[in-house]
Design goal:
With 202 residues, the chain is α+β, with helices and mostly antiparallel strands. It is 16% helix and 29% strand. The chain has a five-stranded mixed β-sheet, with no helix packed on it. A hairpin with a 5-residue loop joins β1 and β2.
Length: 202
């Protein structure tokens, strides 16, 4: 197998996350257990697949509501599709990828810009799931490709802070209230100073 990047030392191979090991050693990669049938991983947790409008006869569909902002819909990957368990990743997050449409039993090798970020084996249905490990954290969009007898591609946003940057009403109103209070006190003190100056002139 060729090196995933050009700076791999001679006699060693790169593992996901940028770690180089001797050619006769295996990469120490996490092997997450697959989620039970009918569930997929969302934000690291096995979650029931969401199929709007599909319910068993005589059973009402539970109101699961819409997913939170930044949370992907819990669904199986379609053939030729690569999905992640989150819409954006921050430093310290564990990122999972799942794909479908691979050649059954083939190696699934995930790369990002030539960097090896994941490796696993597709099951007999041609699907896989693996942890994605980047060697470095660079904010921005990172395209990822999975070669598994077919070429799957997707991308993930790397962000420095949480995607939820909305400010609460109290955090907006408090500085405004303090500023208005300061102006009111300042105006009253200035008015008293002017009255005092007038009375002294008389």
């Amino acid at each position: 197998m060729r090196a995933a990047t050009l700076d791999c030392p001679a006699g060693r191979r790169l593992c996901p996350g940028g770690l180089a090991v001797p050619l006769d050693e295996q990469c120490a990669a996490p092997t997450p257990s697959r989620c039970p049938k009918g569930t997929v991983r969302v934000l690291g947790v096995c979650t029931p697949v969401s199929e709007p409008g599909v319910s068993e006869p005589g059973v009402s569909e539970p109101d699961v509501g819409k997913p939170d902002v930044g949370e992907p819909v819990a669904r199986e990957a379609r053939p030729g599709e690569l999905l992640f368990d989150r819409s954006a990743v921050t430093a310290g997050d564990t990122l999972f990828a799942r794909g479908a449409g691979c050649r059954p039993g083939s190696q699934a090798v995930l790369t990002a810009g030539g960097e090896l970020v994941g490796r696993t084996v597709a099951d007999q249905d041609g699907t896989f799931e693996t942890v994605v490990q980047f060697a470095s954290f660079r904010p921005g969009y990172r395209p990822v490709t999975a070669a598994c007898g077919a070429n799957l591609s997707a991308g993930i946003d790397m962000v420095l802070v949480s995607a939820d940057t909305s400010a609460s009403p109290s955090s907006v109103l408090l500085p405004l209230f303090l500023a208005l209070s300061f102006l009111a006190v300042h105006y009253q003190m200035a008015a008293r100073g002017r009255r005092r100056a007038r009375s002294q002139r008389r």
